[in-house]
Amino acid sequence: MKLDWMQHLIILPVLLPLLCGALLILINEKRHQFKFFVNLSSVLLQLAVAVALVYLTDSGHWTEGMGVYLAANWSAPFGIALVADRLASLMLLLTAILAMAALLFSMLRWSRIGVHFHTLFQFLLMGINGAFLTHDLFNLFVFFEVMLAASYGLVLHGYNTNRIRAGMQYIAVNLAASLLFLIGVALIYASAGTMNMADLAVRLVDIDTTDLILLKIGVAVLAIAFLVKSAMWPLGFWLPTTYAAASPPVAAMLVLMTKVGAYVILRLWLLAFSSDASAAAGFGFEALLWGGMATIVFGAAGMLASQTAGRMAGYGAIVSSGTLLSVIGYGQASLVTAGLYYLIGSTLAMAAFVLLIELVERIRSPGAAMLALTMEAFAIEEAPEETAGVGIPGALAFLGLAFAGCALIITGLPPLSGFVAKFGLFHALLNPESPDAVIDSRTWVLMALIVLSGLAAIISMLRFGVRTFWAAGAIAAPRLHVSEVAPISLLLLVCVALTVQAGPAYDYLARTSKDLHQPTQYIHKVLDAPVVPGTRNEGVAP
Question: Could you tell me the superkingdom of the organism this chain comes from (predicted)?
Answer without folding.
Answer: Bacteria
